[in-house]
Amino acid sequence: MKHILLILSLVALAAIGYSQVHKTVRESSYILGKETKVEKLLPGAGTLKGNVYILHEKVAIPLAFVDVENGKQVQADKKGYFELELDTGTYNIKISSVGYKDLIIKDFTIKWGKQHYIAVSLAASKGFQKK
């Protein structure tokens, strides 16, 4: 009788353990060793940081605009620095400032959980003289 109860309890524990493991595997989309595929499935964001300079100089362009094709826009600070968070994906990014030619970066990819840094230089527009 003791042996039967012991065997039944072990079978019950094994069944509970199996159902928990089986349920976890079925509900999870994460497969060990397939991290890159999982990153593409997970919604998330990355950070785009950068500085805007005058072409051929290390002089910052203050208050330049950074426009992303998804409608997000940020303005650089007085030192030309900007930062914005974007969902993972590929974007066209336009950097502009009064008195300078616009710069468009095409197909820039934001990866999940990553910080991306860009340093861009804008050329002066015709007839614009730097003070």
In short:
The chain is an alpha+beta fold. It has helices at residues 2-27, 35-41, and strands spanning 45-54, 65-68, 73-75, 81-87, 89-96, 103-110, 115-122. The protein folds into two domains: 2-30; 43-122, Carboxypeptidase-like, regulatory domain (Immunoglobulin-like).
Structural summary, described in words:
With 131 residues, the chain is an alpha+beta fold. It folds into two domains: 29 residues; 80 residues, Carboxypeptidase-like, regulatory domain (Immunoglobulin-like), CATH 2.60.40. It has two helices and seven strands, in the order ααβββββββ. The strands form two sheets. The chain has a four-stranded antiparallel β-sheet, with no helix packed on it. The protein has a three-stranded mixed β-sheet with strand order 4-1-7, with no helix packed on it. The longest helix has 26 residues. It is rod-shaped, with a radius of gyration of 27 Å. The termini are far apart.
Topology summary:
Elements (H helix, E strand, L loop, with lengths): L1 H26 L7 H7 L3 E10 L10 E4 L4 E3 L5 E7 L1 E8 L6 E8 L4 E8 L9
Parallel strand pairs: 1-7
Antiparallel strand pairs: 1-4, 2-3, 2-5, 5-6
Number of domains: 2
Structural class: alpha+beta
From the N-terminal CA to the C-terminal CA, the straight-line distance is: 98 Å
Helix content: 25-40%
Which percent band covers the strand fraction? 35-45%
- Name the poorly predicted regions: 17-41
The H-and-E topology, N to C, reads as HHEEEEEEE
Multimeric organization: single chain
Give the biggest sheet.
4 strands, antiparallel
Please identify, by name, the CATH architecture of the largest domain. Answer: Sandwich
- Helical stretch count? 2
Q: What is the molecular shape?
A: rod-shaped
Kindly report the name of the CATH homologous superfamily of the largest domain. Carboxypeptidase-like, regulatory domain
Supply the CATH class of the largest domain: Mainly Beta
CATH fold assignment of the largest domain: Immunoglobulin-like
Radius of gyration, CA atoms, in whole angstroms: 27 Å
Q: Strand order, biggest sheet?
A: 3-2-5-6
Query: Strand tally, please?
Result: 7
Quote the average pLDDT.
Answer: 77
